Amino acid sequence: MSSFRIYILDAYQRAVSRYPKQLWILVAGSFIQALGWGLVFPFFTLYFRQQLGISMTSVGILLSIFSVGNIAGQLISGVLTDRFGRRPVILVTTFMHPLLMLAMIPGRSFVYFAVVGFVLGLFDEAFSPAANAMIADLVEEPDRLGAYSALRIARNLGVVFGPAVGGYVASISYAYLWAGAAIFLVAFFFIALFFLDETFGGVTTVERGGYGVVLADRLFIRFLVISTLVFVFVNQMALTLPVYLKEYAGLDERVYGSLFSVNAAMVVLLQLPVARLVTPLAPGRALAMGSLLYGIGLGMYSFTRSFAWALVAMAILTLGEIVMSPVLSSYVAALAPEEHRGKYMSAFGLSFSGVAALIAPPLGGALYELNGAFVWYAAFIFLVIAAGAYLKLPSARVHSTDEVERRETEKRHSQRAGL
After folding, report:
1. Which site from 58, 108, 296, 344 is most exposed, i.e. has the minimal number of CB atoms within 10 Å?
2. How confident is the model at residue 90, as a pLDDT?
3. Does the pLDDT of residue 317 top 90, yes or no?
4. What mean pLDDT comes out for the span 156-185?
5. Helix (H) or strand (E) holding 267
6. Cβ atoms 129, 140 nearer than 8 A
7. What is the sign, positive or negative, of the torsion defined by CA atoms of 147, 149, 153, 154?
């Protein structure tokens, strides 16, 4: 036990000494932001269902509208991040987040929540491409896996407290919940405003190719398709699980909030040590391992009728999350040419906060209304399939501008030859 504790402490000490100050400022700000989001994100589904008294399918439509905003925000953010830099995008998004949280309070109609949800979605994930591109600017391979792990730890450390507190606050008043979230989110804006510096020097070829460069990368598109499949079912943990636990297992909001706190606590404790263990593995093997663990954990919820069983399932799927998440971001950073990092990160964000999040709510809602357990049966089956697909991915290659130009030239020549 003592050697395990020493290993964890050593992993953290190495990270603190290795990474630049700018990274830790971003990590600290992300921790405060996570406190705000952690208060509210597990309870969106319950809030809409209780506030409007609508079916899970209708709740799914509202969340899909939010995802449409995510898609638009991601696409716009990727271009702006590469054109104007990382910092301006981060400032605009962190300024809008608290205002939109406060806008949730007076909502009483489906149309109102649809409009606010779309705008919130627009600014929500627009933050991620800029933040992930900033990390890629600051940290070179092979240290990026640890850097993305540090960012995840900060976000999950905030979630350790957020859902547990949010469950109690939600049982009193959802208005207090939105207001509390806004306080934390505005604090992150001021950290970004006064302490976060620009990391992007600009590249002369930034406008060439646009998202066409991303779409022409066959390996990256293959990776996105597999990851989208994974995230469709991983998203059910936040969308369908709270309602399932309450209506099928008889467990209330406080239990669900506690499960998310356990998830976040495991990430905080184990993310960096596991990242060190996973670093020597081929990315495809690490991603396959994570997908399989995710599938087993989610599949176990089909039998859940007690807190103990729900806790074991959460622990298993959290191990899958710990293995997969930093590898996903690091893999994208390695594939992306420097001048297109924002767009690559944006396209990757679309796989989980855009396309997958658009599909997941209505799919999960429809499966749930047929039979609640069907959601978890499907999750197990499709995540096992995804694990096999990940195994076939080659190791990430670091693109250069010359390589991108060569591929574009070869494509033009082949098109001319076809004529």
Report:
1. 108
2. 92
3. yes
4. 81
5. helix 253-278
6. no
7. positive
Distance CA 359, CA 375 (A): 13
Q: In sequence order, which residues have a C-beta less than 8 Å from that of residue 356 and are 6 or more positions away?
A: 227, 228, 229, 230, 231, 232, 234, 235
Q: Can you say how many angstroms the Cα of residue 69 is from the centroid of all Cα atoms in its chain? A: 15
d(CA 126, CA 134) in angstroms, rounded, equals: 13
Residue 51 near residue 177 (C-beta atoms within 8 A): no
Residue 227, both tokens: 């990851």
Average pLDDT over residues 390-408: 60
Q: What is the identity of the amino acid at 394? A: P
Going by C-beta distance under 8 Å and a sequence separation of 6 or more, which residues neighbour residue 23? 135, 138, 139, 147, 150
Q: CB count, 10 Å around CB of 292? A: 19
The string of pLDDT tens digits covering residues 186-200 is 988 998 899 888 888
At residue 365's C-alpha, the angle toward residues 364 and 371, to 5°, is 85
CATH number of 19-197+207-418: 1.20.1250.20
Q: What is the pLDDT of residue 115?
A: 92
